[in-house]
Write a structure and sequence with these properties.
Length: 297
C-alpha cells in the first residue's frame, strides 16, 4: 500500500500493473478492499490517475510498520539470543555522536563482558527503525527529533540548538537569536520526521541529511535550527547563532524496550558512565550529571 500510494499513477494501459508492483489493477483493488471491509473504514482515496492515503490509512500504515518491525525483530533477536559470540551492533549517523563515541567504545571495551562492536551508519531518520526491526541492538539518537516508539533510552548529553544562516542573512550580525526572530523563515523538512520547526516558520525543502541542509542554506533556500554539535565543522560560507529559547536537544542511547540481554545492558551502562565522565568543551554537548544504570524491564 505504501508503494502504491507513493507511486500515485498507473502504468501504461497495456500492462495495467501498478508502477513498482507486479500486481494488476483488479487484484490490487481487491487486496485493498479486504482490510477496508474488515475495518469498516476507507484506507485509500483512489481514482484512475491518483491515489492517496486517508487519515485511517495513514494510521494503519504507521502502526502496521511498527507491527512488521516487531515481527522481524522477534525473529532476529531469537536467532541472536542463541549466539553466545554475537557482536553488538550500534547504529549511528555520521557526526551524530556528540564527540562521545570514542570514550563510549573505550569504556565498553574495558568491561569483562564486552563484545566486538559493529558500527552501522544509518541515515538521519532511519536509525530507530534499525533497532525496532532487529538490524541493530542499540542506537545513538536525538530527542525529540527521532521516533522513540517501542524504545527505552538513557540520556547521554544535552545541548543547545543553533540557527545556521548564510553570512548575508538579516540575523547574521546578531550574537544570538530567538524563535520569534525566525518566524516566517523557511526551515527544512526532514524526510520521515514530524515537523519541529519554529512557530510560524514555513516548511521548506525536504532533506535527508545535514550535508543537504548546508547546501540548501548556502543556496539561500532555507535556514536551519540544529543541535550545536551537528553544526560542526561549519562550512566557511555559513554562520551559526545560538537560539536562546529553543528547547535543548538530547543525545540518547536507545534500545528495544523488551530487550533484556546482558549484551545490551552492559553497553548502555558503559555509555552512560563514559558520558558522565567526559569533559564538555564550550561548544559541545553537556554530559548528563553522573553515571546511571540503564533501565531493565
Amino acid at each position: 500500500m505504501a508503494l502504491a500510494t507513493a507511486t500515485g499513477a498507473w502504468s501504461s494501459p497495456g500492462t495495467r500493473t501498478w508502477c513498482g508492483l507486479a500486481i494488476a489493477q483488479p487484484a490490487l483493488s481487491k487486496a485493498v478492499r479486504r482490510p477496508e471491509s474488515r475495518l469498516g473504514v476507507r484506507l485509500l482515496d483512489r481514482s484512475s490517475r491518483h491515489v492517496t492515503l486517508t487519515t485511517a490509512g495513514e494510521a494503519l500504515l504507521h502502526h502496521g510498520r511498527h507491527a512488521l518491525n516487531a515481527v522481524g525483530a522477534a525473529a532476529e533477536k531469537t536467532r541472536r539470543a542463541g549466539d553466545r559470540q554475537a557482536h553488538l551492533r550500534l547504529v549511528i549517523k555520521p557526526g551524530g555522536d556528540g564527540n562521545l563515541l570514542s570514550g563510549i567504545l573505550a569504556g565498553y571495551a574495558g568491561r569483562p563482558d564486552a563484545r566486538q562492536v559493529d558500527i552501522i551508519f544509518g541515515g538521519a531518520t532511519d536509525r530507530a527503525d534499525h533497532v525496532r526491526d532487529g538490524r541493530a541492538d542499540v542506537a545513538l539518537l536525538y530527542a525529540p527529533f527521532d521516533d522513540m516508539t517501542g524504545l527505552d533510552h538513557e540520556t547521554l548529553a544535552v545541548e543547545a540548538r543553533v540557527a545556521i544562516l548564510p553570512p548575508d542573512h538579516r540575523l547574521a550580525a546578531r550574537p544570538e537569536v530567538t524563535l520569534a526572530d525566525l518566524a516566517q523563515e523557511t526551515l527544512p523538512r526532514w524526510k520521515g520526521v514530524r515537523w519541529t520547526g519554529a512557530p510560524e516558520a514555513r516548511p521548506g525543502p525536504e532533506v535527508t541529511d545535514a550535508a543537504e541542509v548546508m547546501q540548501m542554506i548556502r543556496l539561500g533556500r532555507t535556514v536551519a535550527i540544529l543541535p550545536r554539535s551537528m553544526a560542526r565543522p561549519l562550512h566557511p560560507d555559513l554562520v551559526y547563532r545560538p537560539v536562546t529559547d529553543a528547547p535543548d536537544s538530547e543525545l540518547v542511547v536507545a534500545w528495544s524496550q523488551d530487550d533484556r540481554r546482558r549484551l545490551v545492558a552492559s553497553f548502555v551502562a558503559a555509555a552512560v558512565d563514559a558520558a558522565g565522565q567526559s569533559s564538555p568543551d564550550a561548544d559541545g554537548p553537556r554530559p548528563t550529571a553522573g553515571p546511571a544504570r540503564p533501565r531493565r524491564r
